[in-house]
Amino acid sequence: MFIKTFFIILWLFQPETILVDKIAALVNDEIITVSDIEKAILFYPVLRTKEESEENFYFKVLQDLINTKALYLEYQDEFTPSDDDVEQVQAPIIQKAGSLQNLRQWLKNFNMEWSDFQNFIRPKIIYEKVIREKFPMKIAIQFNEIEDFYANEYLPLQRQLNLEPRSLIEMAPIIEKQLRKSRTEEKLSGWLRDLCSSYKIEIKIRSGS
Q1: pLDDT tens-digit profile of 51-101?
Q2: In the predicted structure, residue 130 carries a pLDDT above the cut 80
Q3: Burial grade of 167 (CB within 10 A; 0-12, 13-18, 19 or more)
Q4: Rounded-to-integer distance, Cα 39 and Cα 182, Å
Q5: Measured between alpha carbons, how far is 89 from 128 in angstroms, rounded to an integer?
Q6: What HEC string does the chain produce?
Q7: What is the pLDDT of residue 5?
Q8: Which tops the pLDDT comparison, 15 or 177?
Q9: CB 160, CB 50: distance < 8 Å
Q10: Is the pLDDT of residue 111 over 80?
Q11: 49 versus 145: which is more confidently predicted?
Q12: Ramachandran angles phi, psi of 165, nearest 5°
């Protein structure tokens, strides 16, 4: 995969391999790594459209992480997440994994403990809480829109990647959340650009690298 070319495997005369990560971006002094992009793609309900190149998809996810980090830095002291706020982010991740046991296996693949996972999703929890409370927009997603996305975007991409597609029933909540997120962020894009402009943002990976 595109981003995985940035990983370096070092053999240190031990039975294990050591994965050396690479910085993808900086938001002030906060680091976003290449593995953070991989985690976001695996954990969060982000979907790639069939006309979207792998490279563009990765950079879109990176931009989402930059927006999330900037908003988190701006509001982390103002908004305290409740158990319900945590559940709203954590439950879809467990659903995407298929079970809590599967999620814990995913964490092992990234050499993460449960506490590492909680730290990773905390900016996302704050991000979604701020969006809900500061921008309480009601965006209705019709089921026929979910069906269209499933048939015209999800299924062709799974076939292209030679992956077994999940059923419409399984994918419907993920697709609905992705469509709502996309439309919300279309309306929020100007506000997010203004917010990010107040932070020093450096992207350390280049297109075509």
Answers
A1: 889 899 999 999 999 999 999 999 999 999 999 999 999 999 999 899 999
A2: yes
A3: exposed
A4: 19
A5: 8
A6: CCHHHHCEEECCCCCCCEEECCEEEEECCEEEEHHHHHHHHHHCCCCCCCCCCHHHHHHHHHHHHHHHHHHHHHHCCCCCCCHHHHHHHHHHHHHHHCCHHHHHHHHHHCCCCHHHHHHHHHHHHHHHHHHHHHCCCCCCCCHHHHHHHHHHHHHHHHHHCCCCCCCHHHHHHHHHHHHHHHHHHHHHHHHHHHHHHCCCEEECCCCCC
A7: 40
A8: 177
A9: yes
A10: yes
A11: 145
A12: -75, 145
Distance, in Å, from the CA atom of 37 to the CA atom of 102, rounded to the nearest integer, reads: 20
Sorted by where each begins, the domain ranges of the chain are 3-137+188-203
> How confident is the model at residue 137, as a pLDDT?
62
> And the tokens for 22?
């690479």
pLDDT band at 20; cut points 50, 70, 90? low
Q: What is the pLDDT of residue 187?
A: 76
CATH code of domain 3-137+188-203: 1.10.4030.10
